[in-house]
């Protein structure tokens, strides 16, 4: 039995299904979670399907999470999408269901759930959800297609990142045959608010670039207050540094209210997820995240990032 069929058979056994995704969600987290929820609602109208987690204003156009009581988890199947490890699952009640399934595209270093379906070759978890629907002959409606397309566009950087494959484009082609405005989604994911535009100018003016091609910017609390922004608002500026010629890998370090730092680590070619693991994080080879309790580790981190850039002699 294929993994897709195994998941479908488990879905058929439950009347209640609760779908989770990761904390600090991005378009793929929303798209895969809500896209799957919509597919299940459309194909199994007799089942109760829920999508839970924090509500993010900037992504509410994709869909909105739901608030449910603790008792709903009784005898429920829980599916977690786009979440590499259990500490990152949004809403810790995910362990309270009767059964758990993991569907993801990050390196499978925490293989929780049964079945546990991880495809690291997929551009996004949304792409996997489309594959699941196709393999099991589940109908994808216009609204589900809209959400899943948004997830794919978000995680591929509008098809610019290395994870974009011929299959990714085939799946995207399938989705845009549905009745929704794909160009509008592209524009929305490419647009930024005015305060973020001002922050982008600050980033370009203050970013540092080592001789070996490692770039970084430190956004401390003072800077964030200057632009009246929170950590979640910095996501759109992360790809900007990578547009600079000569940059091989880069990091945006954002200070949190408690003084700790969240690191958004990206690369054009050198593998950076092992470095992320050294600082309590992880992720894809070219896109990872990490954390620091304070700024004391930053100089040492920059040296390591620079060493990674120096060791890479191929084309960017």
Automatic annotation (TrEMBL):
Residues 16-152 form the DDH domain. InterPro entries: DDH_dom (IPR001667), DHH_sf (IPR038763), DHHA1_dom (IPR003156), Oligoribo/pAp-PDE_c-di-AMP_PDE (IPR051319). GO terms for molecular function: nucleic acid binding. Signal peptide: none annotated. Residues 228-309 form the DHHA1 domain. It comes from the Bacteria. SUPFAM superfamilies: DHH phosphoesterases (SSF64182). PANTHER family: BIFUNCTIONAL OLIGORIBONUCLEASE AND PAP PHOSPHATASE NRNA. This is Phosphoesterase, DHH family protein. It comes from Liquorilactobacillus cacaonum DSM 21116.
